Amino acid sequence: MCEVFELSRSNYYKWRENLVSERKKKDEILQSKIRIIHNKSKKRYGSPRIHNTLKAEGELVSKKRVARIMRENEIVSISKKKFKATTYSKHSLPICPNLLNQNFYSKAPNQAWVGDITYIPTAEGWLYLATIIDLFSRRVVGWAASERMTTDLVEQAFLRAYWKRKPNNELIFHSDRGSQYASLRYQKLLKTLNVQQSMSAKGNCYDNAVAESFFGKIKTEFINHEHFISRKEAKLGIFEYIEIFYNRERKHSTLNYLSPLQFEELYNISKKFVS
Known about the structure:
Elements lengths: L8 H32 L6 H10 L6 H10 L39 E11 L2 E10 L4 E8 L4 H15 L6 E4 L3 H4 L1 H9 L3 E4 L9 H13 L9 H16 L13 H15 L1
Parallel strand pairs: 1-4, 4-5
Antiparallel strand pairs: 1-2, 2-3
């Protein structure tokens, strides 16, 4: 080629070195942008969400290139640990039918909510967290934390969600068969509020996959990497994760990489436009 175009070999090698050098410079600039996004997410984002964030910022880059740069520079999403059971279903309390049947998608807000309980270790002992998630936007619409895993805990979480969202009479609430959700007191509360109660099949975690998935995220991205001195400190951290990061900022692949709040805002805008 050099002979055909009457170029010296040294010029060709110089051009090739410059090409590699330019690509390396661009990778270094991209790496710094990736680190900023990664650190801003407190190391919770992997390559898909970082790629989507770069794309939203106007950066033209492929998913493979982002993944490669992260791999080469050991930029990784933080990972999960341990498990502790929080469901006691060996009781004789009434069981409600499964109204969802693993259909975890809603066409509008406040049609179907799911709830569950998990645990957080602290130096003072366990802190139990109950959450309510709207299936439409995956938004945590209510939550409560306590040192005891009681019916009071799940009631408080549900009532916070209910008074915040003010759903109509067509709401379905789904949970596992835990004694807190199956208690006569809790079932009476839902009936009083005209909420249809739904429960998972016995021992089937897939029937409440969205609630399980959220707990996987909060543990993977936050709880497993903290050492809480007190329950109060843990509650403050949970508030920051749910209310500031998860609901408002965290990109969800099921929501086309929008946060729950952004997804609901987009729905409200489209609803006004149609009406």
